[in-house]
Amino acid sequence: MSALMLPELAPTMPAADVADRCRVLGILNVTPDSFSDGGRFNSIDAAVARGLELVRHGADFVDVGGESTRPGARRVSEPEERRRVLPVVAALSEAGVRVSVDTMRASIAAAAVAAGAVLVNDVSGGLADPAMLPFLAESDVQCVLMHWRGHAEIMQDLAIYRSVVEDVCIELAQRSDAALAAGVRPENIVLDPGLGFAKNSGQSWSLLAALPRLHMLGFPVLVGASRKRFLAECVDYGGLDPSISTDRDDVSNAVSALAASAGAWGVRVHSVGPAAAAVRTASRLRAAALGED
User: Fold this and answer.
1) Most Cβ neighbours (<10 Å): which of 85, 187, 198, 212?
2) Residue range 29-83, pLDDT digits in tens
């Protein structure tokens, strides 16, 4: 890494504000092949600069990932994922950023937490690496456990459900039960329905509509819809191209507002500024509805 001057950052918002509203996780892909922004932040300097920019735009966490999980993507090696992720996690943490690490490997999660990460986002829900749940219990770090049925190369063949909402709820409950059995504290667990992961468009929309049912599992819920393919059907105005992922940002922001209004713990997004405005608007509306203003 070149000599990059890193300003120390105060927390993006006071703790009370974060507790009262939906969190915003800004996506930072340090990969050459992620579906939306792969290759834009390949260098450490570019990635760190982008992470700092996400915080300035209102991100509560910067979610750093070194392995693409787009449909059809092949896994990278553990050494390569480590090379991509750890310098960025360390630099952002040193600057005062609340960093989340997006990984399915316990070894990467452990190294990232040692480098300052405060949250582990495992899209496999602990299924890809049997050492993940014991590590999460030992480290006592907050974690996101996503609904997952298989790696990116095969996941779209696994989008077969009797009832997508009930099946996903059952399988997420199995993951939270496994985490609790491994010793993970319940207050450290956040669940993610895995929109677009082994789900077709209709199934993803059904899960979005079922956020109240997901909350009945007893854990906070993270929604990761940003720029995903199932949003493209809503992009048919103003000359926007549904095949271009960034042209789905308006719909992504609408989903962030709706998810926040429905009580989501957090949203994981590419375009942070509009999403931050959306969740704060939803927070104000919920407060007004409860007569708190």
Assistant:
1) 85
2) 998 754 455 556 678 898 999 999 999 999 999 999 999 877 777 889 999 999 9
Angle (CA) 271-272-278 rounded to 5° is: 105
Active-site entry in 21, 84, 105, 268:
268
- At 187-206, the pLDDT tens digits run 999 999 999 999 999 999 99
Examine the residue annotation and report whether 268 is marked as an active-site residue of this protein.
yes
Distance CA 151, CA 231 (A): 22
CA distance 202 to 184: 33
Identify the active-site residue in 228, 280, 284, 286.
228
Predicted pLDDT of residue 141: 97
Active site residue 228: yes
Helix (DSSP H) and strand (DSSP E) numbers for the chain: 10, 8
d(CA 65, CA 81): 8
